[in-house]
């Protein structure tokens, strides 16, 4: 996902960089140097270049072993060691003597946008982080290689099976950018509420399954000076926006999120959405603390490690993110969102399971075949297993984490997923599609949670913004039906 | 021939800086003006001209107006408060000790204070931001709120209350800026001949009278320069707002300013054309401010 670990450090670095760049009235002019090579001329013909598949199952894309490969990794919560020490080594083993240029950066867009426009694209790009690039815009210019040949290629571990049959199906749904398979999501994460299993065991508390049990536990906790729930109002308000969206999906089914993503009229003012905002705003008002509106995700997570907060809305990466600071008596575990209405569309146990961490291959790079092969190696069992060992995060490759000693939180997430069965809450894709709408949402969620507007006003404001985006011709529209 | 040689000599020196300036300063500005007339998204290979549409959209853009209002407030408060405090401190440091021995002196220990006042100026803006995050932290772990908690007061959300956030940030800007203006005004005061003060003091003028009748009128030019610097600073504040309030000018855009809005519009929302239009607007605002200030304060120098 785009929000692994040390955002604080990453953002600080980016802000320091910005200080140098954006001083004063020149700020708006930063982008200006880019017009030089543009101007007249037809847009590039094919939106995505397809590469012919070769017959050789050992080298399905016909990689030229002599051609160097360039890999750019977003160095966030997962670091970049997994690429350097695992995937690139696998590539070198397959093509002995090949040179790989490895770059790790936290400024994907800043560094790569000019290179792509200027025709100097690296082959494999880990498009992630706050500076990630707009994939729809890149696709429209034909910068992204079609990944369909990758999904149809024989897998490394069993040439009789295609790659598409070795990964979790969400990968294929999420590969689509404006209707083509252009992006590989590599990691799987589980999002719901996270709590300290050891604390609950010590106190004899039961994980609340209904909203009444949830608020009753809130009263108990309040008596002990503990908050039932908190989210980081600084830098991490999107955790709560997700949480509210997932709650709405639990109440009204995934269609609620699909409608919002598809910019359907009045999607935001639908009953389940209003209900979800209302119940969470009440929880914040009754069992929350307004100080958290000014704390960032790390500060809030530390508070949870100190048992000052019971439930925290986040994804499974939090366990690895906080691994260094987690005390002995703390064990992360996932709790599904409690039953809200008693007749929610999804039964108790539904959690969000999503894929994330985008990888794309540049269509106009020097070695797109090598790029596809690199992704195929990433999707091998060895590549995936060793990624999990290094980062403590699960990949989209089926069964690749078997035998790996996973930490307790990930195990609890896996159990929760088994229990949820078909009741998997979908992710909201407008986060990537319509950044302006998502950013507005992360801002307004703080406003409604702080009680400065009512849930109805929140829904009305979001709807108005969604309508504006819908009307804006300069924004590429995308749709989904599952 | 002689003239040609002279000009050739001068031009030889100017060629390099002029080229650099044109390439790195003039041409980006010109390109921003050009881009502001397009709907370019930062990736597209075709740039479509849309005339003045972007500027039309600005007129109805709520966030843009919010940013302008914040700049207005900054423009009023930041220079005024900074200059008043800096003048007061500079006066104390240089002349506040009254006449002793061979001339005017500052208060006792003024050499030490001068260094202390200048400290914040030495810190990078990002460091100041991180520092004040800790100072303003909204729970009792915050520096200010920790003190308040000792007196049994409720913690204050310095940066999370929409009515308070911008003022908290202005306070940081003042804190950081004052040191520089103390030094600037001190230099100005040092240039005032001591005889004036001595003569006035002999005539029985007190310190307040000295300040308003002699120091301030003779410092007019320096104060004006300070005012323009601070006015331009009021159009910036990008890094401080980013670090302290968040990258959208939270809460509720109460602290949003044009550079922040421009940055998000261009690089998060991929509307480079529209962002350039905002940049052009900011350019004209800054220029207008500087010209107005110079015109309105550009009276005859006061000759004593």
Can you offer a commentary on this structure?
The complex is a heterodimer of chains A (482) and B (304). Chain A has 482 residues and is an alpha/beta fold. Chain A folds into two domains: 48-186 and 355-406, 3-Layer(aba) Sandwich (D-Maltodextrin-Binding Protein, domain 2), CATH 3.40.190; 189-353 and 427-471, Periplasmic binding protein-like II (D-Maltodextrin-Binding Protein, domain 2), CATH 3.40.190.10. Chain A contains 19 helices and twelve strands. Chain A is globular, with a radius of gyration of 23 Å. Chain A starts with 6 loop residues before the first helix and ends in an 11-residue tail after the last helix. Chain B is an all-alpha fold and 304 residues long. Chain B has a single domain (53-297), classed as Orthogonal Bundle (MetI-like fold). Chain B has 13 helices and two strands. Chain B has helices at 2-35, 53-59, 62-94, 110-122, 125-136, 143-150, 162-190, 194-202, 207-218, 220-234, 238-244, 258-268, 272-297, and strands at residues 98-100, 103-105. A two-stranded antiparallel ribbon of chain B has the order 1-2. In chain B, helix 3 (62-94) packs antiparallel against helix 10 (220-234), helix 7 packs antiparallel against helix 10 (220-234) and helix 12 runs antiparallel to helix 13. The longest helix of chain B is centred in the N-terminal third of the chain and has 34 residues, at 2-35. The model of chain B has no long low-confidence stretch (mean pLDDT 87). Chains A and B meet through helix 1, helix 3, helix 4 and helix 18 of A and helix 1, helix 5, helix 11, helix 12 and helix 13 of B.
Question: What is shown here, in short?
Answer:
The complex is a heterodimer of chains A (about 475) and B (about 300). By secondary structure, chain A is an alpha/beta fold.
For the structure shown, list the relevant keywords.
heterodimer, A: 482 residues, alpha/beta, D-Maltodextrin-Binding Protein, domain 2, 2 domains, ten-stranded mixed sheet, two-stranded antiparallel sheet, 12 strands, 13% strand, globular, B: 304 residues, mainly alpha, MetI-like fold, 71% helix
């Amino acid at each position: 996902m785009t929000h692994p670990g040390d955002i604080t450090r990453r953002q600080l670095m980016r802000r320091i960089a910005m200080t140098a760049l954006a001083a004063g009235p020149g700020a708006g002019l930063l982008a200006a140097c880019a017009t030089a090579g543009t101007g007249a001329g037809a847009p590039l013909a094919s939106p995505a270049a397809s590469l012919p598949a070769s017959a050789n199952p050992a080298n399905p894309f016909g990689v030229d072993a002599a051609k160097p490969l360039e890999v750019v990794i977003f160095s966030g919560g997962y670091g970049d060691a997994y690429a350097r020490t695992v995937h690139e080594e696998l590539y070198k083993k397959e093509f002995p003597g090949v040179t790989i240029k490895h770059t790790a950066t936290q400024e994907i867009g800043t560094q790569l946008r000019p290179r792509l426009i200027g025709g100097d694209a690296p082959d494999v790009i880990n498009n992630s982080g706050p500076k990630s690039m707009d994939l729809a815009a890149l696709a429209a210019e034909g910068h992204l290689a079609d990944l369909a040949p990758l999904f149809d290629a024989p897998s490394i571990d069993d040439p009789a099976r295609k790659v598409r049959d070795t990964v979790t199906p969400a990968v294929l749904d999420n590969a689509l950018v404006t209707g083509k398979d252009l992006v590989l999501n590599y990691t799987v994460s589980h999002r719901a509420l996270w709590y300290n299993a050891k604390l609950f065991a010590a106190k004899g508390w039961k994980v609340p399954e209904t909203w009444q049990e949830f608020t009753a536990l809130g009263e108990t906790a309040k008596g002990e000076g503990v908050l039932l729930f908190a989210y980081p109002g600084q830098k991490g308000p999107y955790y709560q926006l997700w949480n509210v969206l997932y709650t709405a999906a639990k109440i009204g089914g995934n269609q609620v999120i699909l409608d919002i993503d598809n910019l359907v009229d009045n999607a935001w003012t639908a009953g389940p959405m209003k209900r979800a905002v209302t119940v969470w705003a009440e929880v914040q008002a009754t069992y929350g603390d307004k100080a958290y509106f000014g704390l960032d995700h790390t500060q809030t997570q530390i508070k949870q490690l100190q048992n000052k907060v019971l439930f925290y809305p986040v994804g499974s990466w939090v366990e690895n993110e906080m691994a260094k600071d987690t005390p002995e008596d703390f064990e992360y575990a996932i709790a599904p969102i409690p039953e809200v209405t008693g007749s929610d569309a999804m039964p108790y146990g539904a959690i969000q399971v999503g894929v994330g961490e985008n990888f794309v291959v540049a269509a106009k790079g020097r070695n797109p075949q090598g790029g596809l092969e690199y992704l195929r190696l990433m999707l091998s069992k060895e590549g995936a297993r060793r990624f999990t060992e290094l980062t403590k995060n699960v990949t989209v490759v089926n069964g690749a984490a078997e035998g790996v000693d996973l930490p307790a939180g990930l195990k609890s997430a896996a159990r929760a997923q088994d229990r949820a069965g078909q009741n998997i809450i979908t992710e909201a894709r407008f986060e990537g599609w319509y950044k302006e709408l998502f950013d507005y949402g992360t801002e307004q969620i703080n406003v409604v949670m702080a009680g400065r507007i009512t849930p109805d006003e929140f829904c009305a404001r979001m709807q108005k913004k969604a309508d504006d985006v819908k009307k804006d011709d300069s924004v590429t529209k995308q749709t989904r039906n599952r | 021939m002689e003239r040609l040689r002279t000009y050739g000599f001068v031009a030889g020196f100017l060629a390099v800086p002029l080229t650099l300036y044109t390439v790195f300063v003039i041409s980006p500005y010109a390109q921003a003006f050009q881009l502001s007339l397009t709907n370019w998204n930062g990736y597209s290979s075709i740039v479509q001209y849309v005339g003045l549409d972007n500027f039309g959209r600005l007129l109805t853009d709520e966030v843009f107006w919010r940013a302008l209002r914040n700049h207005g407030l900054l423009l009023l408060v930041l220079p005024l408060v900074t200059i008043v405090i800096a003048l007061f401190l500079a006066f104390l440091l240089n002349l506040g000790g009254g006449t002793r021995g061979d001339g005017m002196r500052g208060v006792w220990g003024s050499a030490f204070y001068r260094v202390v006042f200048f400290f914040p100026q030495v810190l990078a803006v990002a460091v100041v931001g991180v520092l004040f995050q800790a100072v303003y932290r909204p729970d009792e772990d915050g520096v200010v709120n920790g003190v308040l908690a000792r007196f049994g007061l409720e913690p204050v959300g310095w940066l999370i209350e929409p009515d308070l956030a911008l003022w908290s940030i202005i306070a940081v800007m003042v804190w950081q800026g004052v040191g520089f203006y103390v030094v600037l005004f001190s230099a100005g005061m040092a240039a005032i001949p001591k005889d004036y003060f001595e003569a006035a003091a002999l005539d029985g003028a007190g310190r307040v009278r000295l300040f308003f009748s002699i120091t301030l009128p003779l410092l007019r030019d320096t104060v004006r320069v300070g005012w323009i610097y601070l006015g331009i600073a009021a159009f910036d504040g990008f890094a401080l707002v980013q670090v302290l309030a968040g990258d959208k000018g939270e809460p509720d855009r109460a602290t949003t300013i044009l550079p922040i809005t421009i940055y998000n519009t261009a690089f998060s929302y991929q509307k480079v054309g529209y962002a350039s239009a905002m940049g052009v607007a900011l350019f004209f605002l800054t220029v207008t401010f500087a010209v107005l200030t110079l015109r309105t304060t550009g009276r005859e120098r006061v000759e004593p």
